[in-house]
């Protein structure tokens, strides 16, 4: 039988309700910051949680620790002597943090500690650092002052400071040293779980590696489980046994760190990995440029939430074009459908001898004039294709006819018709199907429809 995990998170959600208009507005929207996240952390294991800014990493951490109230889901914590509990008759779990009362929460917060990006704010500038750290055991009932001091002095040494630092004040320490102090304080109650939220991202690059190495040492020394949160996938690779990748409130891939890096099962992970600079000059530099911006978590895309930016987005049965061209066709479709391409402005520019450049607001001079004749119109259509990085002719004749009809409609000022043509023909199953995590390798799961038999290997070429 496998050992029960220290922490089991199941279907965790945190939705914020925010007012849309001003202060008095009744109109609200729901920000799905965390939207059904599940994972386990074993005893002594370090799990990395990675993803771009705003994907919900910090909200996941604060919901687990109940610094914010989760909207739904379970957080089962088997630490602090609670191991081996079984579910109640009504299906609830006695170790579910989301249901803990005040006393249970106090005990849980002794066993699960948090360190975050900015250690400065967590120390009272008027108190010696030793005094600050020693407060925690006092709150939890250790009244013997000498003993508290001895424990804190010992910890200061174990985090690479000295016992004599006990009586110094926060402003006397550098950023890296303050993070060491934060670690000492996190460990003073001998917790089972350490949640480290971007613990090195505010530090000088020169000290980041030292702090990471320290966290790693402390983990083995104290037998800690670690939830390590970072936007930087290479930092997670250094430290974590397993890695979970988060996108727009969901976990899209999870598995042993090396397997996630060497054989990513989700295109988003591939893109994150490709953004890491490699010191190897022979490296082919297969950088994957993610198109489009991160959609809002208050209105996430249908189907796979990553499909609006995915370089492997699946083509429908009736389309067969080069994969990079397909991505650009969908981007063009979206610009037309959202009205980002204004036909009047486009025509005006063409008449003035320029067309819209790829960058917003950018225009490239064509140097030609006297537009309007049918043959010139064909020329305009070609320039529109050039502008949006679409080939002069698509390899798929039917798709090419569709694109031509849409561009002609656009040039005739009929943007709604252009949008209808593109929207009807250029569809993707990725916008229809919400993929669940499925097996990608040993203990490795990824949520991408390309792992379904019917789409297997799609976009690999
Ligand atoms: N109190 C709040 N009210 C409304 N929306 C919030 C609140 N806190 C966070 N959010 C939103 O929830 C989403 C997730 O935020 P979160 O801070 O968890 O992401 P993150 O991945 O940790 O990013 P970062 O690394 O930038 O902190 C974001 O869109 C954020 O704007």
From TrEMBL:
One of the GO biological process terms: transmembrane transport
InterPro entries per UniProt: AAA+_ATPase, ABC_transp_ATP-bind, ABC_transporter-like_ATP-bd, ABC_transporter-like_CS, Oligopep_ABC_C, P-loop_NTPase
UniProt-listed SMART domains: AAA
Cited Pfam families: ABC_tran, oligo_HPY
PANTHER family: D,D-DIPEPTIDE TRANSPORT ATP-BINDING PROTEIN DDPF-RELATED, TRANSPORT ATP-BINDING PROTEIN
Family (UniProt): Belongs to the ABC transporter superfamily.
Protein name: ABC transporter ATP-binding protein
Native source species: Halobellus litoreus
């Amino acid at each position: 039988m496998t050992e029960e995990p220290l922490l089991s998170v199941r279907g965790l959600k945190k939705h914020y309700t925010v007012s849309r208009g001003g202060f008095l507005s009744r109109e609200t929207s729901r920000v799905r910051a965390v939207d059904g996240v599940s994972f386990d952390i074993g005893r002594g294991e370090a799990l990395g949680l990675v993803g771009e800014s705003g994907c919900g990493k910090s909200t996941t951490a604060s919901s687990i620790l109940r610094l914010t109230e989760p909207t739904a889901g379970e957080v089962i914590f088997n630490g602090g002597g609670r191991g081996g509990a079984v579910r109640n008759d009504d299906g609830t779990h006695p170790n579910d943090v989301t249901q803990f009362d005040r006393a249970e929460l106090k005990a849980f917060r002794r066993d699960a500690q948090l360190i975050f990006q900015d250690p400065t704010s967590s120390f009272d500038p008027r108190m010696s650092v030793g005094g600050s750290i020693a407060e925690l055991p006092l709150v939890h009932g250790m009244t013997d002052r000498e003993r508290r001091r001895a424990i804190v002095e010992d910890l200061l040494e174990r985090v690479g400071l000295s016992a004599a630092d006990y009586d110094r004040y926060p402003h006397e320490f550098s950023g890296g040293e303050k993070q060491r102090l934060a670690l000492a304080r996190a460990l003073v109650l001998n917790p089972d779980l350490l949640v480290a939220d971007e613990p090195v991202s505010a530090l000088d690059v020169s000290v980041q590696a030292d702090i990471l190495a320290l966290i790693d040492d402390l983990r083995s020394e104290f037998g800690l489980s670690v939830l390590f949160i970072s936007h930087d996938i290479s930092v997670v690779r250094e430290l974590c046994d397993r890695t979970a990748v988060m996108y727009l409130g969901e976990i899209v891939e999870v598995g042993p760190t090396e397997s996630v890096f060497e054989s990513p099962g989700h295109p988003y992970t591939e893109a994150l990995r490709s953004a890491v600079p490699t010191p190897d000059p022979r490296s082919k530099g297969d950088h994957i440029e993610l198109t489009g911006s991160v959609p809002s978590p208050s209105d996430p895309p249908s189907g796979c939430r990553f499909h609006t930016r995915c370089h492997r987005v699946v083509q429908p049965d009736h389309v067969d074009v080069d994969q990079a061209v397909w991505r650009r066709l969908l981007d063009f479709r979206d610009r037309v459908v959202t009205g980002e391409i204004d036909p009047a402005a486009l025509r005006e520019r063409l008449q003035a001898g320029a067309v819209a450049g790829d960058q917003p607001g950018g225009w490239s001079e064509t140097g030609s004039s006297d537009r309007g004749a049918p043959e010139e119109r064909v020329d305009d259509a070609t320039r529109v294709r050039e502008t949006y990085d679409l080939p002069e002719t698509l390899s798929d004749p039917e798709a090419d006819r569709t694109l031509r009809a849409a561009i002609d409609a656009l040039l005739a000022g009929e943007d709604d018709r252009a949008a209808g043509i593109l929207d009807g023909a250029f569809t993707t199953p990725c916008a229809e199907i919400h993929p669940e995590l499925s097996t990608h390798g040993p203990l490795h799961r990824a949520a991408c429809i390309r792992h379904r038999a019917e789409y297997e290997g799609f976009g690999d070429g």
